[in-house]
Amino acid sequence: MQRFCLTLDLKDDPDLIKEYEAWHAPGKGWPEVRQNDLATGVLDLQIYRFGTRMVMILETDDNFSFEKKAAMDAGNPHVQRWEELMWNYQQAVPGAKPGQKWVLMEQIFQFEK
């Protein structure tokens, strides 16, 4: 299993943040997007928010790659519509590359086992 942590910002608008969270309430996500994520090797996906900053934790199988996910996402019209819709609420974090949404964070600490 692999674990990744990514970050993204929401637009600083309380109404938009409320709408964004409503889209992510239990039972509100699009099943086609979830199925696509599962097919790419995502085992679990969690999003946390503090103010406008969000953190996503992905747990994936050992064969997961971001390149494979990007290719499958690009070929899925449901994912493309979902991402277009979500971009109404989201904005890139400082330092993101042009057009980049979720930015992979670097792990700097872990408990020693």
From TrEMBL:
Q: Matching SUPFAM superfamilies, A to Z?
A: Dimeric alpha+beta barrel
Q: Which InterPro entries match?
A: Carb_Metab_Mutarotase, Dimeric_a/b-barrel, Rham/fucose_mutarotase
The protein's GO terms of the molecular function aspect are:
racemase and epimerase activity, acting on carbohydrates and derivatives
Q: What is this protein called?
A: L-rhamnose mutarotase
Q: What is the lineage of its organism?
A: Bacteria, Pseudomonadati, Bacteroidota, Cytophagia, Cytophagales
